Task: structure prediction
Amino acid sequence: MANVRTICMRELAGYFGTPIAYVFLAIFVFLSGIFAFYIGGFFDGGQADLRAFFQFHPWLYLFLIPALAMRLWAEERRAGTIELLFTLPVTMFQAVMGKFLAAWIFTAIALALTFPLWITVNYLGDPDNGVILASYLGSLLMAGAFLAIGSCISALTRNQVIAFVVSGVVGLGFVLSGFPLVLELVDAIAPSIVVDTVRSFSFLTHFQAISKGVLQASDIIYFVSLIVFWLFVNAVAIEWRKAA
Amino acid sequence: MIEISNITKRFGAVTAVDDVSFSVGHGEVLGFLGPNGAGKSTTMKMVTGFLRPDQGTIRIGGVDIAASPVEVKRWIGYLPEGAPLYGEMTTRGFLRFIAGMHGFRGADAEGRIADVMEKVSLESVMEMPIETLSKGFKRRVGLAQAILHDPRILILDEPTDGLDPNQKHEVRSLIKGMSAEKVIILSTHILEEVDAVCTRAMIIANGRIVSDGTPEELLCRSRLHNALRLSLAICDLDETTVGRVVETLRSLPEVSQAEVSSQSDGTLELLALPAGPKPLAGPVSAAAHANGWHVTGLHVERGRLDDVFRAMTTD
Result:
């Protein structure tokens, strides 16, 4: 556990030691606000809630999270420090976990920085803060799943740009599989059980369920098991590609 | 301390390390020599537990590294090839990270950091980001992280590569200073380095050990080992005089071969190769005296590691 913390702290310091952190935080807060106010119609809805804000999170994460995750392992491989890391008394689990947690904590900081929206909506009306809290949790869980994908793909290459693009595409697959357009298309060519399977794999489906304020075990398990699965593949990928 | 038995490592169709076995004991400084791609780095990566051998076992202090990798890694300090470091961290931050990973906290960690800082002279760069440091300092930071936890075993992959002569000298004295209490394995391209710091030299070619012995023993295999370089001052240098001198040398029973290595006005330089283990200096100087040669230089060659290296690593 101490090793997880040491690696996590180093990684977090790494984010804040470069302009990446500040650029990311600024863009995240700025874009989430823009989306909520201009595209989501925050004021037009006439309701005191943050749905306009949360509904764009999957799309925001789609390109912001790969930017956060791309350096996790690709940089380690490019610089050769992976050799340094894995000759220290550390297990694969500790290393993967430490890095993932660092990126996740960073995302949590970014999410926390959107608190002015929450204050605004509480000032303007009387929102259901339970729903908002559930939405924040759901958003964080979804971010974790995006991060696990990004971390895993970052372990397969030493090129951060490739890691970024591929994680974006994989993430898009997970988002789109819940998109009505895609589901209708699948519906036209496949039986309904396939449609349900595709839908059940979507970030959108599960995230929307949580952001309605219903914290169901199945949705939480979905995101947690995705994180576990991708981090496991991440560890396997590192072991397999270590020498390359 | 380190026992390696029959380790093999393949990368696809290439066999990087082919059935290698050796052991290294306390107080030994083992130098790995060999051309690029011979398998030196791969062997070191397996000993440090970074790569897993396809076959064979590595035991360190009696413990199988495959069975308890984390425990064994605590005893090892490793400087990977090219000394990779986290460039965005400051030297202090980086060393704190390393200390933390080895389980040192608080004052204990600070004490260790201060200790290595002094040992490898990092005082002036402690607060600087590592990526802004010169090559020499980066290498020293790499060494500092390798020795921070005072490991019993030190594995250094080309520790002096790319350093200037002064820096090379510093790193070598550092290694020498630690050699008494540790087991050290280092790899190098620089043959003089083996001679300067190693108690044992191993030549690796095509993934196999082709020679294992002291640097002295390696030198003995050189064609030039115990050869004699002789400089004579001769006023009127002509072919007959030169021929006569060479003939005289060749006629000595201890000399197997004699040749002119260079001649310029007034000076003739010759090389005499020994016929056996007997030293040449005595008989040659006696012959010089008897023939009234004016000797200006007499030098016994120890041999050239380059020659031995080339002979052993090319087919």
